[in-house]
Design brief:
Radius of gyration: 24 Å
Low-confidence stretches: 76-80
Mean pLDDT: 84
Shape: flat
Pfam families: Toprim_Crpt
Helix content: 25-40%
Protein name: DNA topoisomerase III
Order of helices and strands: HHHEEHEEEHEEEEEHEEEHEEEE
Number of domains: 3
Distance between the termini: 51 Å
InterPro entries: Topo_IA_cen_sub1 (IPR013824), Topo_IA_core_domain (IPR023405), Toprim_C_rpt (IPR025589)
Strand content: 25-35%
Organism: Lysinibacillus sphaericus CBAM5
Length: 266
């Protein structure tokens, strides 16, 4: 809020954005507040365990975070021109939201017709993906794109010099053990495609020490041989710890603890 004038309360752009982010989440629901109050009473009366309440809270917070992330991805570019990315075609205008497309502010003045549709291959792009296209020339891997036959696929979107969009289909990482197969998703783990053909048994579990690894962390393990520091691992005694994961030549994983440089084999 802007309280420059003590008699008037002005809502800032940041405040408006925050309201949009929590819109549609249980965070703004009076029902969830009432439920939490009831749970606290139940704990006080001994009819509910504190750990059950904490598990409920954890699940609810996860749902709220997911919803906020969705809202964050679809929040419009800020209205101020200085906040919008520069037009990659004319270099003079700014790219702003124009409904179904993001287009250049110089269209009426100079005729610059640069634009990017919000929805490509039946997938609505997030603001970050659109900004990456404009500023970097391409996105990361975009999942949930659909063909004319309604089949889902993933691809990198690349902005061509003429303003058209190309699909680049990413390759799976090469197996670091046999050097022939590719590493693909196999449910609870990622493993080599050559298992049936040559018996290559290279694999990495997605969850290590009760921590589910991100796609980037798995890719770092496969291609670089180790990750950065990862927080949220849990020991057998359920104590949290942070560590770097290092892949050995035999495929086993070591924990590296930066503070003392000791390694613990998994």
């Amino acid at each position: 809020m802007d309280l420059t004038d003590k008699k008037i309360v002005n809502v800032t752009n940041t405040g408006i954005s925050l309201c949009k982010l929590v819109e549609g989440t249980s965070l703004v629901s009076h029902v969830i507040t009432a439920n939490w109050e009831k749970s606290l009473k139940d704990i006080e009366n001994g009819t509910m365990k504190g750990v059950e309440f904490l598990m409920t809270i954890e699940k609810e917070v996860t749902n709220i975070n997911e919803k906020i992330t969705e809202n964050l991805d679809t929040t419009e570019f800020k209205a101020k021109d200085e906040d919008a990315p520069s037009c990659p075609k004319c270099k003079k205008g700014k790219i702003i939201n124009k409904g179904q497309v993001f287009g250049c502010t110089q269209y009426k003045e100079t005729g610059c017709d640069f634009s990017i549709f919000k929805t490509i291959a039946k997938k609505e792009l997030s603001n970050k993906q659109v900004r990456d296209l404009i500023e970097k020339g391409q996105t990361g891997v975009v999942k949930g794109l659909k063909s004319k036959e309604d089949k889902e696929f993933a691809a990198i979107l690349k902005l061509k010099a003429d303003g058209k969009i190309d699909f680049i289909f990413p390759q799976n990482p090469m197996c670091p053990k046999c050097k022939k197969g590719e590493i693909v998703d196999k449910g609870k783990l990622v493993g080599c495609t050559q298992f049936n053909e040559t018996g290559c048994d290279f694999s990495i579990f997605k969850t290590i020490a009760k921590k589910t690894l991100s796609d980037k962390q798995l890719l770092d393990l496969i291609e670089k041989g180790q990750t950065g520091i990862i927080k949220g691992f849990k020991s057998k005694e359920d104590k949290e710890f942070a560590a770097i994961l290092k892949r050995n030549k035999d495929g086993t994983i070591n924990f590296i603890f930066p503070q003392n440089s000791k390694m613990q084999k998994r």
